[in-house]
Specification:
Elements: E1 2-6, E2 10-14, E3 20-25, E4 28-31, E5 36-39, H1 43-60, E6 67-72, E7 75-79, E8 82-83, E9 86-93, H2 97-102, E10 109-119, E11 128-129, H3 131-136, H4 142-164, E12 168-180, E13 183-187, E14 195-199, H5 209-212, H6 218-229
Antiparallel strand pairs: 1-2, 2-3, 3-7, 4-5, 6-7, 8-12, 9-10, 9-12, 10-11, 12-13, 12-14
Bound molecules: uridine-5'-diphosphate.
Family: Belongs to the SAICAR synthetase family.
EC number: 6.3.2.6
GO molecular function, one term: ATP binding
Length: about 230
């Protein structure tokens, strides 16, 4: 097939239809800006399923996204988008980089959700940026920033409720957006690689922190998330 792009966890292929791409989910796991690398057997299969289920749910809730359909164990057909160079992070509970950056204790519940932007750049290691940086660097305009913030807030509301029904706490997550026919839509993936999900009762981590922190049973955590949400 016609490889367009290869990232750390996914490959993107062109298709016969110029408006559609295929996203292929790999088993590669990376953390800390690619410094830590490994393979997690079957991760691509599980993340493709989880992302597909979540994108379908978001469609039902009126949130436009690139997902069209799953086409194989590791592949989804998506609308072609030009990715906006932003990582949009939403945090409900303290974990990960914000704890190190601001001395926040892991597990602290925030009185309101926190929205952060990072500039997607391997060269500069995805630095945190604000809305002025986004405008000045021509990453997005004011109207687009407004749309992205509204999407992120709505996705948080939908996913918090969805996961809580299966006894999972949505701690934080990262979204990416793209432009399809000059309209902004949600893109990329939503999976335990890009969300922190804790068991509601035990606070057991069921996401990529199992890999980052060498907690073991990485795929078991991801499969637990899939089992709970596909019921
Ligand atoms: N995240 C991601 N890709 C990134 C950075 C972060 O998917 O390149 C997700 C991460 O899995 C977590 C949330 O965004 O759910 C917040 O991550 P954080 O800033 O704490 O970064 P990390 O701990 O990954 O360095």
């Amino acid at each position: 097939m016609n490889l367009l792009y290869e990232g750390k966890a996914k490959k993107v292929f062109r298709t016969d239809n110029e408006n559609e791409y295929i996203v292929y989910f790999k088993d590669d796991a990376t953390a800390f800006n690619g410094e830590k690398r490994s393979e997690v057997n079957e991760k691509g299969i599980v993340n493709n399923r989880i992302s597909s289920l979540i994108f379908e749910l978001l469609h039902q809730k009126g949130i436009d996204n690139h997902f069209i359909k799953m086409v194989s164990d590791r592949e989804m057909l998506v609308k072609k988008v030009d990715i906006i160079s932003l990582e949009v992070i939403v945090r409900n509970i303290g974990a990960g980089s914000i704890c190190k950056r601001l001395g926040i204790e892991e597990g602290k519940k925030f009185k309101k959700s926190i929205l952060e932007f990072s500039y997607k750049s391997d060269e500069y290691k995805d630095p945190l940026i604000n809305e002025d940086h986004i405008l000045v660097l021509d990453i997005a305009n004011e109207e687009e920033i407004k749309i992205i913030k509204e999407y992120a807030t709505k996705v948080n509301e939908v996913l918090k409720e969805f996961f809580s029904k299966v006894d999972l706490t949505l701690v934080d997550f990262k979204l990416e957006f793209g432009k399809h026919e000059s309209k902004i839509i949600l893109a990329d993936e939503i999976s335990p690689d890009t969300c922190r999900l804790w068991d509601i009762n035990s606070n057991e981590k069921l996401d990529k922190d199992r890999f980052r922190q060498d907690l073991g049973k990485v795929i078991e955590g991801y499969k637990e998330v899939l089992n709970r949400i596909q019921k």
